[in-house]
Structure formats: C-alpha cells, structure tokens
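User: ok so my PI wants both of these folded by tonight, can you help

Assistant: No problem, let's get them done. Here's the first:
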Amino acid sequence: MFGVYSPGQEPKSYAEMTQEEQAEEGAKRLIEFMQSCPGKSAMAGGSGFFLGGFFGLFMASMSYDVPLGTDSVNSIRDLPFRQQMKIQFADMGKRTYSSAKNFGFIGLVYSGVECVIESLRAKHDIYNGLSAGCITGGGLAVRAGPQAALVGCGGFAVFSAAIDLYLRSESAAPPANDYDE
C-alpha cells in the first residue's frame, strides 16, 4: 500500500489486518491526505466556507436595508408580518450562502497555490505566502482589468505577509528565563 517494504515483507491486505492495524493504516492514510496539497486545499476551502457562512449570517442579520429583490421599504412594510419574516430569512440565507461560497473559494485557491509553491521551492518561508497572496488576489481581480489585478495582487500579498508574520511571532521560542540580560 503506502510506504517502503523490504524484500520478503509484503504488505498485508486489509482483510488480513487486525482491527488495530486497520485503524493505524486508516490514520496514516488520513494524515497523508491532510498533508497533501489537495487535502490542505480541501480543509482550507471547508473552513473558509464554514467561517464565511457564519460571517455572512452575522452581517445579514445586522443589515437594516431592504431585502434583495424588493423595490422599496414601503412595499415590504405593507406585507403581513409572516410574509416580511419569510422574505427576510430568505434574504439572509442567500447572503449567508454567497459569503460562505466566496470565503471557501478564496481559502481553497490560496491554500492550493501556497502548497504548490512550497512544494516547488522546497522551502517553508514567508515568500510562499507572499507569492500565493499575489497570485490569488491578482487572479480573483483579473476580470476587472490589469489595474485591479495589480491592486488585488498587492493587497492579498500584504495581508498574507501580515498574517504570516503574526503567526510566526507567536510560535517563536520563549526566552530562556526572565533573569537573562
């Protein structure tokens, strides 16, 4: 299956394994998938979808304007309360799904691009995030023209660098003790 086997040591079939060996093999495969570029991209896309949905629901619930698809404030005020609520919840659902879809897509693309760049460079440093941010931001804005793509590239790269620097600062080794000078 996965791994290197010495001559004479053949991998067991799944049916020949004990329950513990099957669980261990399943865990190994899951970890290998999660460490692969498709696995990282899928996890980032799923996380982005979930967090984007939460963010979209919050923002839609805080919105005091007229729901999408209605002409004016007066037209919705004239409806019965139950109909008003139905329109409001339908609007919240559309906004939540739209936000979730956008965040999920951005997470999927950014994570996939960063993983591919890291694999090609065989290094784990801040330049992977900068490059992935630039490619993702520029790619998302390319339909709006070259100026928008350039701004998207710069904006995503700066945001990515800021997040990377913040996360790296939290993982730095603590000082040996407080008495060292």
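One down. Here's the second:
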Amino acid sequence: MGQPIIYLYEQLKEEHVETIRQNASDYTIIDAKRESTKLVEDDIEIMLGWDKELGSRLLASETSRLKWVQSISAGVDTYDLNRFAEKNILLSNASGIHSVSISEHVLGVLFAEFRGIRTSIGNQSKKSWTRQNISYKQLSTQKMLIVGTGHIGQQLAAFAQGLGIQTYGINTSGHVTDGFIECYSHKNMSRIINEMDIVVNILPLTDETYQLYNEQMFLAMKRGTVFVNVGRGPSVNTNDLIHALVTEQLSFAALDVFEEEPLPENSPLWTMENVLITPHISGLTPDFKAKLLSIFVQNLKHYLKDGTLAKNAITLNQGY
C-alpha cells in the first residue's frame, strides 16, 4: 500500500492544486486532466469530482481506501448512495456555489415572459415592429412558491422579495426559513399550491421528489400558473407537463432541466409557444472553481484533523 492519493478529476488551476498540496503534504496529488501517471487505484482516498468508471471500480473493490468524495454539483442523485453508505464513504456537494446564478436565471426567464421580451426577440428576427402580440404582466406582487428552501431557495427569495414578489416555501417539515412569508411541508404542498401564481422547483432528486410534478399536482395548481424548473428533470412527468401546457392549466413553463438530456429533437416542448427552453445552464457560475476550492479546502482541513467534513456533508439515506 503506497502513499494515499487525492485524485482531482475536476481540473484546477496550478495555484489551486498547490493550495491543496500545502494542506495535505502526506498525500500524493493526482491531477487527472493534466497527468497520465499510472497509479494504484486502491490508494485513492479522496476524490474531487467524480470519475464514473474509476469510481465504480473503487466502489466494487474490497481493498479500496476511498473515504471521501467532493461532488462538483449540488445534486448527488447520480451517485450510488447505498454503496457509499455500505462502505462508510463521506460525500459532500457544492451547494451554495450556484445560488446567485440560479436565482438570477429564474428571475431572468420570468422577466422574459412577464415583460414580453421573448416575443420581442422573435419579432426582431423578423424585423417586425409590432405590439399586437406582446403580452405583459406585473411581476411584483405575484405569489411565488419556491419548492426547496436551501441555499438556492433562500437566495432566490431574497432577490424576489426585493422586487416586491411574495415568497412562500416548501421544505421537508414546513419549518420556518429566512426570506419566506410562510413555509409548508411537502405533504401539504398540493393543498396550498392553488394559491400561487408562480411555482419554482429547486428540489434535489430523491425517491420522494421523483415525478412529483405529475397530472395530479398540475391540476392542483391555479389555472394559468407559471412553472419554472431549475431542480432536476425527473421530478417532472414530461407527458403530464405537456398536457398541462396544451390545456393552458400552465400559462408558461421555463425549463432548464429535463427527464432526458439533451432534450430529444422530436419533443413537442421545442415548438410550444408557451415554453422557454435553456440547455441546463442555470447553474453556470463565474469563478466556479475558486468557489469549489474554498469548500473543498475547508472540508479537507476538517477531514485531516478528525475525519469529518465542515461543510455540505450529504446525509446518504436522505440523498441531500
């Protein structure tokens, strides 16, 4: 058994690698994107980013030293959490890094719809100066239900309240959270959703949130509700969503994530006038790697001290 390895699957700047090296002098640092060094895979103890093929081998190995994985995303539904739990492997995510970016994205797509900007872009491409097909509504005073009151939900609520939007939240227990007029539990969501003008999904994907937005949930909404999904695609039943849009139970949907990605070319969503599609870009964040390094180094110091994580540790049996 050789020196333990920190395996950087996410490529970092050299100064970032040096910061890690200074904090973990007893470890070999392998930058997977820069180096072709042969290594003993079982010596990998820490992984930044997730190499699915290598990770699968380590999870299957009885001699692997893997003890902690730092995800580069907030969602961890692509990980084999049961196997992580069986092998007592720590997992942390990048929650908080994307909060401002996703919040700005949500407000951006809402303004595009409420102020007729989407229609104006189409008219511009046709050199058409017309107001006849421009619809507009006041975004302030609208009631927004933010489904998921974590880092992103709280940031969105703060921004939205600054615009005069009334913000309500959904979380597991209905506990009070800063930035929300009132919060409700998941089990009570269908009871209050018909009071909301805008519904924004920010939930991680778990067994409980899979297909949460189905025909029953869409019918529980107020007719003409605006729906925004920046959470996870499989939280939505796509066929039921399309039906809700066709029947105008939903007046508009801004969709950044989908059950199948890329969205198939034959999907009706592409050509629906009351849909705005973005290609999973809401989380794109300036200086992402520097922010990721900050989380990783905080966790690294704690891990090396006592085997625990300081920030964003995932509760494996809950999935977030």
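Residues 99-277 form a domain with the Rossmann fold fold (CATH 3.40.50.720). The chain has two domains: 5-96+287-306, 99-277. Good luck tonight!
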